[in-house]
Amino acid sequence: MPRLSGIDIPNEKRIDISLTYIYGIGEKIAHDILKIAQVDPTIRTKNLTGEELKNIQTAIETMPTEGELRKIIRNNIETLKRIQAYRGVRHSMGLPVRGQRTRTNARTRKGKRKTIGAISKEAATSAPAKTAQAKTTTAKK
C-alpha cells in the first residue's frame, strides 16, 4: 500500500479514486493533482512507479490536506464563535448551522431525543409521595 500524506491508499483501486481517501481531496482535486503530476488517472495504484508517486506527493503538498486542513477548519469555527456570529452561536449550541429546520429533523446535530412534559408511571406515582413528604418537613419547621 502506498502512503501519501500519512494515509495508506488502496492498491487495487484506480489512482483517481484512491486519492479521495485523503481528507480534503475529492474527485475534482484528485484529477487536478494527477494532471499536475502528469499521471494517467486510469492506472491502478499498485502499478504506479516510484517517480509517479513522488510527483503525486509533491502535487499534494501544495494544498492543505489532513491535519493541516482540519486545523484551518477548526480555527475558522473558533473565530465564528469568538465574534458571536450567527453560525458560531449555532456551532456552540450544537444546532444545524446552514439554515436547516430544527422542529422535526436535525437529529444528527441535536443528539438523542429528550422527552419533555411526559412523565413515566413510576415518576408519577412517586411524585405525590415526595411532595407530601416535603410539605410535612416544612410544616414541622
From TrEMBL:
Belongs to the universal ribosomal protein uS13 family. Residues 99-141 are annotated as: Disordered. Gene3D superfamilies: 1.10.8.50, 30s ribosomal protein s13, domain 2. It comes from Candidatus Collierbacteria bacterium CG1_02_44_10. PANTHER family: 30S RIBOSOMAL PROTEIN S13/40S RIBOSOMAL PROTEIN S18, SMALL RIBOSOMAL SUBUNIT PROTEIN US13M. Part of the 30S ribosomal subunit. Forms a loose heterodimer with protein S19. Forms two bridges to the 50S subunit in the 70S ribosome. The keyword rRNA-binding applies. The lineage of its organism: Bacteria, Candidatus Collieribacteriota. This is Small ribosomal subunit protein uS13.
